[in-house]
Amino acid sequence: MDMSILPNDGIHKLSFFISDGFKTRDGAELPDSIRDIFIGSRCSKQLLQESIDTFIYSLPRNLHRLSIPQDYRFTQQCILPPTLEDLEYECTRDSLDHLVVPVNRHYKSCKLQSQSIEDTEWLNTKPWISALEVKAGSVSHNLSNHIKQLRVWSWGFDFEDVVLPESLELIHCYTAVPTKKGQLPSSLKNFYHSFFKQPFESGLFPESIETLNISFIIKEPMPHGFLPSSNLKHLELWYNQELQVGILPQTLEYLSIHSYQKPLKPYVLPNGLKTFIAESFDGQLDQHSLPTSLTSLNLRSFRGSYSSIGPLNKLSFLSIFVLNQSVLTLISNIKQIDIEFLSINETTLQNTVIERLNLKCKVQQVTLPPSFFPQSLRHLDMYNTYIESSNVLNDGCVSIISNKPIDDSFIPPSVIKLNNKKRNNN
């Protein structure tokens, strides 16, 4: 890449990937008009290092944002421009220590990879770094208030050994870090735990939590009060104990529950829930099992009937195992929707009012039956679905996109926009 060919004015954002064969000229300078630089990597560490070295120590004077691959290492002093507002870069102390940062800067995307207590003590003196990733060992007993994110990979880490700052907004534990009541900051918003292997305790999580993700199969029932009830909007669990009414807070908007195979009783799900994902569920659905507030529903293992549910008029995304007659109960009043399915069982969408449809088959292919689409359909996007006769599409559809070939004779004359893989008729 020859930086000298870039015009001096007019370029505000520069994005490129360094891959095998990438070359830059030594002493290259980027135009000062550039405000945003993104550098990706698909190459060896040596080539990455040599390529970025040619221009990184002479950055544009008006740069606002810089994103660098974590495999790159600063080896000499690098003065960051005073206009820089965010640095997306994570690395160890030996590299970050070469950066000369303007005063009163706080880069929300800059992260230290810590391997010792000394690393975190150094971090406490660098207010421009927002995130800490504990790769090994422990941390300093006190962490500074400029740290907004904490990610823990070290098996030797223990919350009892550190005073967590109230400024923390996110904690992600990738190892079996024990968590006790009162240890988490009262202002924490996001908590992720990949190895949650401890008994439930009411009040464990502060009421400030908005996102909670526990990525480990929970083998005991959740008691009332375990989940924070004031602000929790996004919940993801690996859980296969029967959900009871009142366990899930009414504030929830997103719920993904993996491995769940128990009954889904009426009114268990919150009234304002927008997204519900239960990919293993294949139990029974009763009236009021699903709230009418849903905009996205993923029950791709469910083989039963939806007939008792009634219309879900806000639905815009539906992922199911089989597209059967009972599914029409859910979507009877919907004009625009994305539907993913694995099979079709003697049904069509003919009696719906859908005008804009994205239809995706999750297996290799399926042939759509005659009169499959409604007369109201205007815009159609299909994936892995075949049309094999002229009476599948309605006259009135104006736009079709498909990854499979459609014979011209099967396309109604109303279509004015067509994007598909043409069948070779020779």
- Secondary structure: helix percent: under 10%
Q: Which H/E pattern describes the elements?
A: EEHEEEHEEHEEEEEEEEEEEHEEEEEEEE
What gap, in angstroms, lies between the N and C termini? 44 Å
Instruction: Count every beta strand, where a strand is a DSSP E run of 2 or more residues.
Output: 26
For the largest beta-sheet, the strand count, sense and barrel status come to: 20 strands, parallel
Radius of gyration: 27 Å
Number of helical segments? 4
Give the helix/strand class. mainly beta
The stretches of 5 or more residues where confidence is low (pLDDT under 50) are 422-426
- Please state the average pLDDT score: 90
Strand content: 25-35%
Query: Judging from the principal axes of the Cα atoms, what is the shape?
Result: flat
